[in-house]
Amino acid sequence: MNLSTLMFGRRLANREHEDKKIGWVEAVPAIGLDGLGSSSYGPEAALTVLIPLGALGLVYIGPVMGCIVALLAILYFSYRQTLSAYPTNGGAYVVAKENLGEYPSLLAAAALMIDYVLNVAVGVSAGVGALVSAIPSLHPYIVPLCLAIVFVVMLANLRGTGEAGSLFALPTYLFIICFLGAIAYGLVGLGLGEKAPVVAPPPLGPAAQGATLWLLMHAFASGCTAMTGVEAVSNGMGSFRQPVMRNAYFTLTIIVVVLGLLLGGVATIATAFEIGAMDQTREGYQSVLSQLLAAIAGHGAFYYIAMASLLSILCLSANTSFVGFPRLCQMVAADGYLPKAFAQPGRRLVFTAGILFLSGFAALLLIAFGGITDNLIPLFAIGAFLTFTISQAGMTQHWRRRSRRYGAKLAINSVGAVSTAAALVIILIAKFAEGAWITLVAVPVAIAVLKMIKSYYISLQRELRKPGPITLEDIEPPTVLVITEAWNRLSERAIKFALTISPDVVAVHFIRLGGPDREEGEKALREKWRIDVEEPIAALGLRPPRLMLIPAPYRQLHQPLLRLVEKLDADSPERRVAVLIPETVKDRWWQKLLHMNRAGRLRTKLVKLGGPRLTVATVPWRLYREEPPPA
Amino acid sequence: MNLSTLMFGRRLANREHEDKKIGWVEAVPAIGLDGLGSSSYGPEAALTVLIPLGALGLVYIGPVMGCIVALLAILYFSYRQTLSAYPTNGGAYVVAKENLGEYPSLLAAAALMIDYVLNVAVGVSAGVGALVSAIPSLHPYIVPLCLAIVFVVMLANLRGTGEAGSLFALPTYLFIICFLGAIAYGLVGLGLGEKAPVVAPPPLGPAAQGATLWLLMHAFASGCTAMTGVEAVSNGMGSFRQPVMRNAYFTLTIIVVVLGLLLGGVATIATAFEIGAMDQTREGYQSVLSQLLAAIAGHGAFYYIAMASLLSILCLSANTSFVGFPRLCQMVAADGYLPKAFAQPGRRLVFTAGILFLSGFAALLLIAFGGITDNLIPLFAIGAFLTFTISQAGMTQHWRRRSRRYGAKLAINSVGAVSTAAALVIILIAKFAEGAWITLVAVPVAIAVLKMIKSYYISLQRELRKPGPITLEDIEPPTVLVITEAWNRLSERAIKFALTISPDVVAVHFIRLGGPDREEGEKALREKWRIDVEEPIAALGLRPPRLMLIPAPYRQLHQPLLRLVEKLDADSPERRVAVLIPETVKDRWWQKLLHMNRAGRLRTKLVKLGGPRLTVATVPWRLYREEPPPA
Questions:
Q1: Which of A407, B204, B376, B578 has its CB 3.0 to 4.6 Å from that of B478, i.e. a possible disulfide?
Q2: Which residue of B has its CA nearest to A607?
Q3: One GO CC annotation, please (chains A, B) (predicted)?
Q4: In a shared domain, residues B440 and B556
Q5: What is the CATH classification number for the domain harbouring B618?
Q6: Where would I find the beta strands (DSSP E) of A430-504?
């Protein structure tokens, strides 16, 4: 049991892939946290835009949230159709690739990837922001707290999606029960005519201006952040166990219904109890959900439990990205648009490269912005709505290519495509100056990078392609150059191996010193070589290996060696050259400090600079694990 | 012309070694800065201890500095003898090794190494401290300034000692001229009876206590820091050009005479003008040399030029360590007590590893102490005096072993040994509580590490030793396993090479997928293999390579491969096994990101975990530089 096993669990076999998939119970916490967490900042964002209207704002919050809930309902039915049409993976990338072509699919991929990275940064910093406003003494530790949460979520996901789901199940279901319960209790109370809040929310300010279409558009655009996370189920299809469709439907339904109920309930109760958003920068700030809970249930134990569950799911809402991003990258990498490493399942059958990249990039964003990523929120809704629109447009195309029987389905996806496109346009216009333009720069850059990677792989494949059978000119054994530093058991092994693969063996010894000692040393070496190597081998009737002494005046071995190889190549072009480098294998880190790694460096240089006819081999000697040394 | 050539200069050949050596003109700045810089803090340190005596302290500073100058004179004559007895290298390590044995030499080596590292940290932070007190707005940048200076000195020394000497010549000679000139001018003035200082130093405080032996011992111990750096010439012998002795004598003489004149002059003038040390922590602090210059010459342009030269040589006094430390480490490493890398001359024939280690360790100390290393000063004199004593004791032994003719020389070194040992005892007692005890811990730890390294190399040598001639059992060609991912030009090359070294070639293909696709894929692969490889090779009358499909259920290739090797070894113990891994050579960093480096990782694992009979070779394919791909 080593450290990695302790941290990540044992290595899983390919056939265990099915066992690690998840049902809807784990999927709601694993995939749904982004969607559910949105219920806290969606209404808050819309109400914040309405602050200038004062109490008048409450007249409009109902209709604005109504539009959003209606859009959510349209999206729900649209995505149900996507799931049933693409039961293995219904992400926008796949739908766009199959129905719309390369560039739309890359657009979807780029938008989704940016969205996922932003979701981690924004989610974690929002959660930590809430935590810090609850416990102000934590304020100096915002960045370390953010990084710690990213690290925990990363570790949970490196163990596996199921593990993350189980780990996050308690706060998720607690959150659902607390908030749906509170809203139901509040609505029942309102129905029974109890109009007085338990703890009254702070009074709303006076109206500073009248309602304009621009303001309402802005409120709608801000409220739309509540809908990010809905596409997550379609991207996470690969993680569901059998019956896949049932698990996916259940998960999507739970997420959307809970989100819809929360949004609708919050809007209704806020209107009834006259709850508005407060200025975050002022002292005494309370979030809309905090005011709402207090109005319904007072500041008792329930309030604190519910708020703690909200805080937990905000912090953990990053997990949605950890489910979707690596799977998306795997598909994109399998198509050659991302490095192959993203397509390689790791120790626990999760896509390690994607998880590490996502964590690293989000951590960089969090460090760069000091853990305060409010400015990134506008960018974030755009990615989501771009994805929605492309996915629905793809589905429209999907149905159109089929027969007329699918008229109803076509209609649903068309409504979805048109309405999300309309919302996208509204968001783009309303949020353009606030940073939405950054997305318009980042997405094309990302697409260009993806295309460049693809073209590298295409040229690589062309370079390596071998049409037809092997072409064999001759199979003359190579001239084998054995690098020898001294006559010891290491060089003995290398010479012995060289003799098994070729009769033409040359031992190469580098001379580094100059001066009068040099000649004497050379003579002694040649004599030792004659007695210890040449004569015994000649006695067996074999061609003895020659000893060549080569000066290395610049203390670099590869240059004189490459010159020698060139000369040998010119002298006998029919023989290739192979270089054998004896190498001691170091088991421990401190052994590496005590050895020069001359073998490794020489090998790297030769491989890099040698001609196409050169082969480089290392003959390993495992220190203290081979035959015992002679007494 | 690439970046390294620009930064470090072109790579030098071994025969250029002599050209890079230095004469006394370059040696004084390169080696002497530590010794010359000492003149600023030695008297200051002694006077600081005397502060409690008030004006009475001036009575004692003369005798205290007199003792120190006398000790310096003894040391000068002692070291002259050492230089002439050991003209190639007269460092304490060599002298102790030749005359006193292993442990004294390791004691000298450990003391010197610690001393050199401390000298860099203390010198640089003292220089930056002086700079910051001159320009207070630099205060927030103490650590970056320290690191920048270490970096500049490191870079200069990576280019070569001569380059560092030339670079630092101007401030060094300017310092010598300014201060010797000022002191001569002051002394002449005093001789002519001008008793009034140009700018009067601040009045000395009242006597808080009377002079005690303890206080005077303490003043002497503090003043002895002025003598660090005297041993540097003996350690730097290897860097002098012909005539070595003359250059070494000149350098030693200049350093010691200038230092002696400065110490004596400062003491005399300070007594005459009533200059004492001031409390560094109080506002309006001025160093002793600053008060002295102002008293002699006023606050004119000369004052600023002289102070600037002092500041420069303080900052650069670290350079002495950069000359001595790498040469010391080279000798210790050549004897096997330090990693071999320390004995390897780099691109510019300097000992790169030693320079980098010294810079890194000093930088760590500077960062750890925030650039304020005052507390390390007591440690620092101990290393120097320990070295003096061992070196002189070794010389005593050296002369005693020879005939009686050397009685005078024996006497001089004996006086040196006894007086430095006495000074060492005084320093140890006076400074014990201030941190001198740390040296008593650090030195034995360093010696233990040196001994452990030596014992590793001894056991390594025993492990690798091959007494007698080669023992050749059989030269049966090995079974060659060629790793093939797909049939392409990469695997074609590897198969072709395999056929040249052995008739027994097996192509190994790993199967990672399970399920129904697998069988179909396997069949297609076998068919392609038969047509493209087996049949053409059989047609040439050769044994065609078999194709083995091996499942890799855990996505790691080395485990199934090692199992196969074990099986082959058991089946035919007379044949060794060689694994050939085809590898694409990546020229650019971004190519590494786009490839999985599966070849490299497999190679590392096989070399580490394979048995002694396994050889691992890579067959390189240089992307885009080999034959053009087929049209």
A1: B578
A2: B620
A3: membrane
A4: no
A5: 3.40.50.620
A6: 479-483
CA distance B348 to B157: 9
Residues A305 and A216 in one domain: yes
What is the arrangement of strands in the sheet containing B505-511, beginning at the earlier edge strand?
A546-551, A505-511, A479-483, A577-585, A614-622, B614-622, B577-585, B479-483, B505-511, B546-551
* Burial track A191-230 (b if 16+ CB lie within 10 A, e otherwise): eeeeeebbeebeebeeeeeebeeebbbbbbbbbbbbbbbb
Whether A403 contacts chain B with CB within 8 A: no
Q: Which residues of A touch B617 (CB under 8 A)?
A: 578, 615-618
Kindly state whether A356 is in contact with chain B, defined as any CB-CB distance less than 8 angstroms. Answer: no
> For residue A315, is pLDDT > 70?
yes
Answer whether B593 sits within 8 Å of A555, measured CB to CB.
no
Q: Which residues of B touch A539 (CB under 8 A)?
A: none
Q: Are residues B484 and B447 in the same domain?
A: no
Answer yes or no: do B585 and A608 touch at CB < 8 A: yes
pLDDT confidence of A452, banded at 50, 70, 90?
A: very high
pLDDT tens digits along B272-331: 998 988 877 777 778 888 899 999 988 889 999 998 999 899 888 889 999 889 999 999
Establish if B185 belongs to a structural domain. yes
Q: Are residues B236 and B358 in the same domain?
A: yes
Angle (CA) B296-B301-B305 rounded to 5° is 90
Mean pLDDT of B89-103: 90
| Same domain membership, residue A492 and residue A425 | no
In a shared domain, residues B406 and B534: no
Q: Each residue of B243-261: pLDDT tens digit?
A: 889 999 999 999 999 999 9
pLDDT tens digit string along A560-587?
999 999 999 888 888 889 999 998 888 7
Whether B52 has a pLDDT exceeding 70, the answer reads yes
Q: How far out from the chain centre does Cα B95 lie?
A: 21
> Inter-chain contact B615–A554, Cβ cutoff 8 Å?
no
Range of the domain at A339: 25-457
Cross-strand pairs, A293:
none
**Co-location of A508 and A438 in the same domain:** no
Cβ–Cβ gap A457/B594 under 8 Å: yes
**Strands B577-585, B546-551: parallel, antiparallel or unpaired by DSSP?**
unpaired
Coil/strand/helix, residue B548: strand
- With an 8 Å Cβ cutoff, is A589 touching chain B? no
Q: Is residue B18, in this structure, part of any structural domain at all? A: no
Q: Is residue B193 predicted with pLDDT exceeding 90?
A: no
pLDDT of residue A612: 75
Do the domain assignments include residue A496?
yes
B501 touches chain A (CB under 8 A): yes
Question: Has residue A434 been placed in a domain?
Answer: yes
What's the structural domain count of chain B?
2
Residue A13 has its nearest CB partner, among B477, B536, B553, at B553
* B240 strand-pairing partners: B22
| Contact between B502 and A497 using a beta-carbon 8 Å cutoff | no
**Residue B104 confidence (pLDDT):** 94
Pick the residue from chain A with its C-alpha nearest to B580. Answer: A617
Q: Are A109 and A308 in contact (CB under 8 A)?
A: no
- More confident call, A437 vs B515: A437
Q: Taking the C-alpha atoms of A232, A233, A239 and A244 in order, what is their torsion angle to the nearest 10 degrees?
A: -170
The answer to whether residue A630 scores a pLDDT higher than 60 is no
Residue in A closest to B455 by C-alpha = A594
Residues of chain B with pLDDT > 70, as a percent, come to 98
* Range in A91-95, A109-113, A126-130 with the lowest mean pLDDT: A126-130
Pick from B145, B555, B194, B619: which is nearest to B372 by CA? B145
Query: Which of A453, A502, A537 is nearest residue B501 as measured by Cβ atoms?
Result: A502
Residues B495 and B583 in one domain: yes
Nearest-angstrom CA–CA distance, A302 and B511: 56
Nearest to B500 among A344, A463, A478 (CB): A478
Whether residue B608 and residue A596 make contact (CB cut-off 8 A), yes or no, is no
| pLDDT at res. A448 | 96
